[in-house]
Automatic annotation (TrEMBL):
The chain crosses the membrane at residues 185-204, 210-227, 234-253, 268-289, 575-604, 629-647, 676-696, 708-727. GO terms for biological process: cellulose biosynthetic process; UDP-alpha-D-glucose metabolic process. Keywords: c-di-GMP, Cell inner membrane, Cell membrane, Cellulose biosynthesis, Glycosyltransferase, Membrane, Transferase, Transmembrane, Transmembrane helix. It catalyses: [(1->4)-beta-D-glucosyl](n) + UDP-alpha-D-glucose = [(1->4)-beta-D-glucosyl](n+1) + UDP + H(+). Its main location: membrane. It comes from the Bacteria. One of its GO terms (molecular function) is cellulose synthase (UDP-forming) activity. Residues 731-828 form the PilZ domain. This is Cellulose synthase catalytic subunit [UDP-forming]. It is a multi-pass membrane protein. It comes from Pandoraea aquatica. Its EC number is 2.4.1.12. It is found in: Cell inner membrane.
Amino acid sequence: MISDALRSLYRLGRDILAVRLVVPHRPDGRAPGVMQWILAATVRSPQHRLWISQMSDHVVARLAVRLDVRQLDQWRDWWLRAVFQPARAGRPDYPGRAFSWLNERLTQRLDVPADAGFWQVVGAMLWRRADRRPAFPPYTAWLAFRRGNERLRLWLVQSLFGIPPDTPAELAHKFDRKLEKVMQWRVTSTIVALLGLFGVFWIVTTPFDPFSQLLFSICTLTLALVFRRLDSQYSVLVLIGLSLTSTVRYVWWRLTQSLAFDTVAEATVGYTLVAAEMYTWMILLFGYIQTIWPLHRRITPLPPDTREWPTVDVYIPTYNEGLDVVRPTVYAACGIDWPPEKLNIYLLDDGRREEMREFAAQAGVHYMTRPDNRHAKAGNINHALGKTQGEFIAIFDCDHIPVRSFLQTTMGSFLKDERCSLVQTPHHFFSDDPFERNLATRGAVPNEGRLFYGIVQDGNDFWNASFFCGSCAVLRRTALDEVGGVAVETVTEDAHTALKMHRRGWNTVYLKVVQAAGLATESLSGHVGQRIRWARGMAQIFRVDNPLFGRGLKLGQRICYANGMLHFFYGIPRIIFLLAPICYLFFGLHIVQAAALSICAYVLPHIAHANIANSRIQGKYRHSFWSDVYEAVLAWYVALPTTVAFINPRYGKFNVTAKGGLIEQSFFDWSISKPYLVLLGFNVAGFLAGILRYFYGPAHESGALVFNLLWVMFNLAVLGAAVAVATEVKQVRRTHRVSMRMPATLYLPDGRTVACHTRDFSGGGLALVLPVAVDPAVGTEAHVALARGATEYGFPVSVVGARGNQLFLAFMPLTAEQDKHLVQFTFGRADAWRDWDAERTRDEPIKALFEMLAMGLRGYQVLANYLLSKLVTRWQNSLRGARQSWRDTTDTRV
């Protein structure tokens, strides 16, 4: 054996060296010790060796007496007494007994004598004899690796390849051979990966002149554009690799060649800009890791026997929302397909309103309230937890209307995994948010929230880090009890609760299947208030329960949670990017100490690669450059709350997001747009200063001037779009119209029956698409029957108009029972939001850039119209005042 040959070679070399150095053996015939080897190697004279040896023996004997070492040649006794003091007279020597027991077990395991020397024990650990099995590292570690590898192989064969344990031997052997070939490539893959990392390091740190850097960037961008068109997740990995290579190369250049500032002012502003860039680099890296492989989890079916289904409590918390907002959610919850004896619905009213109590009794659901509003929504849910007994808790915000299949879609994951604590579904909104309504981009540009529920949560699920989002979710009661209920330490109780459960080893599931829909915020001010609460809460969690530290989380979970929290710190960096070019254009400060050509050669590829990779990853859920608009709108408002919450996490309180409001008249929200207008004014001043600098400034700085002017122009486009969002569009619908195709039957008063389908509907009426044109008179009363599965229900309607083969109907006054069925046959249909993902078009960066620029121009048009109308109104008022003053003067004279 190889180990026996190495052992023999070691002994031969030791004996030759002992003869060469004249190392004496001990009097008892044992091999020379460490002291004999040291003396032989350092002292030539035999007399000196004897004298030193006698002195060392004398010192050792005195030290042995001092430490109470009984056997001088036993190194174990020396180690024992160096650590533990000898036992007092009459008392048992517990450390000595424990050490003797440990020595006996160790020497027995290693198959060496009980009084074996130190090097003999070490040799037994590291060498394997032919006549015994390996008993200690590294051989035991190797065997453990082999056993783990075998278990992994069996799991791959049986689970991933779908081969059951009773597979015929021939087929199993075929897969075994294929898998062995794959396993043989693991070492090669590791070597290739290490070589690749070395190559990336070499590429990153190799200095290029601007022209060489330009050629390098052209090559990598060409490769990225090719891989962007490939419909494979592996192409995403390549794009991420190219983007990170370009980014790290830019970071290396930025930190090593662009920070040689001349003045204190330049250094202050320059390092502030670098700090903001470092934040974006970190968010970019964390974002890539978070979304590197979306899980696309499938629905787990329930067992066919309903007796095995668990009991579920449905919580619908409310505070100050109107009955017209709460009613559809309660009616839809009553229509959820689940055994009635295992389903309890609770309306949790923190407003303690009598009308809600009466409605709950009429709807047949439980009504629950409490004497105070401590801890807001979290306290409301925790109070209900102590009063109910369901095994699982389904939570819906009072404006989120569930479909009938909600529990049948989500509960299978709990029965499959006993450690599953949460199943979260997307938050889908059937009404337009302020961006979609004010910019008229619904269907053309994804709204702000779709990125999170479309790709981020699905990426979190890969790392077992899906967040609880406060609604449209089911939680296991035992998991909630283990973490003390819903978290109350922060105002984002949902994400904090999920973090606590993950720390305790619970699993979470995200199903990208819309099973509920709700109302988006009606106004920009309400939207901003909601985002402020989210930002403050995430900053609080990052401060009091930082996911990067503490126990219980895996690396992927830490990164996902950290990215979700650090994302809301974008306020200050975004403001820095909006103001940075002004420092040069207005004050002449060189905040990047490099030539303009070098800056472009490094920063533009970094930005281009990041946009290409994110465009490929985010696809239908976020268009390029629109993140700049969303962040510019909110930057000023989240900067202060996140900073204050990070310094003092106890500051601030929970605020309820208003839903169901109306906007009686279109108007420009001057109050909410003040920060954008201030930033806009600074950028306009910087642009004008840049124009003057072009004509009267130093000629050799034309490159830097053009670069900063282009930067300012981009900022002006972003701020223009932000101003356009602040123009609130009139919204007087109390019930939002939803586009949905579902089968219907029209019963006309003359006896005709027409099978048709709906085009859209709302709580007040619906539009039908008929196979043939029917033109009844306006005001004609009829009936429309809607189908849900095998069930059909009719509703009285009146005709309000017709166009071609389309008929527009309004619901006549409905009874409570009819109103309940209307909700369940429309919003509560199992297929109500089946096509929520189909309407989205993939991102095209160039097109998205021009869309954003067009929105910026629209914002300036809106601002000009507003200022002009204000000027005209003020001029008219002053003219009226002058006329009235002249009349008063004339009347006085008369």
